[in-house]
Amino acid sequence: MGRARRLLWLLVAVVAVVAVVAVVSDSRSEPQTTATTQPGGTPVERPCPEHDGPSEPSVEGRAEIGEPLPAVTMPTVDGCTVSLTDYLGTPLVIPFGASWCQPCYVEWPALKAELEARPGELDVLAVNFREALAADTGSFLDEMGAPWQAIDDADGEVAQAFGVRTVPTTFFVDAEGVVRDRIFGADAEAIGEAVDALLAESPAAP
Fold first, then answer.
1. Could you identify which of 61, 65, 115, 118 might form a hypothetical disulfide with 70, taking C-beta atoms 3.0 to 4.6 angstroms apart as the criterion?
2. Rounded CA gap, 41 and 202, in Å?
3. What is the mean pLDDT of residues 161-167?
4. d(CA 148, CA 126)
């Protein structure tokens, strides 16, 4: 009887060890979200652009190649209020992205390089794409070292006006506010070529 009891306890112990190992293995194999695996970077100063227009959020019209930008006034993830008209007079790049968008970690550094290579010749205004928490986009901007503002478009209203269904999607707008080009996906070379073409064909600032 004693021997049988010892065998029973040994069996229970083995089963318990196997269960613990299985639980640990499962917890280690669970995929983590980008927000937890991508650490935030050093905070970057992103000054609000000058804005003299309306303060109430609004989106009117649709973005089409060769046509003026839609009328958009929205808050940014840093608490500014911006309108797309605030950027008239300087060629503008509008990248749609999010902290969970892995290709954006390739595209946004390329955009930063283009911006730094052309000081005063180009502006960037990002749009967060259905990011649930504005703080996640802010941390993503800091990690990328991005000095531009990002419109808070958690509900996708701006994305709908631009016909954006996936990210990264990037629009190139001349100094008069006319959409000149659009790129899908992250391609640093294509971005550089699109910026060159934009600056070459963009009318001079008024």
1. 61
2. 34
3. 96
4. 7
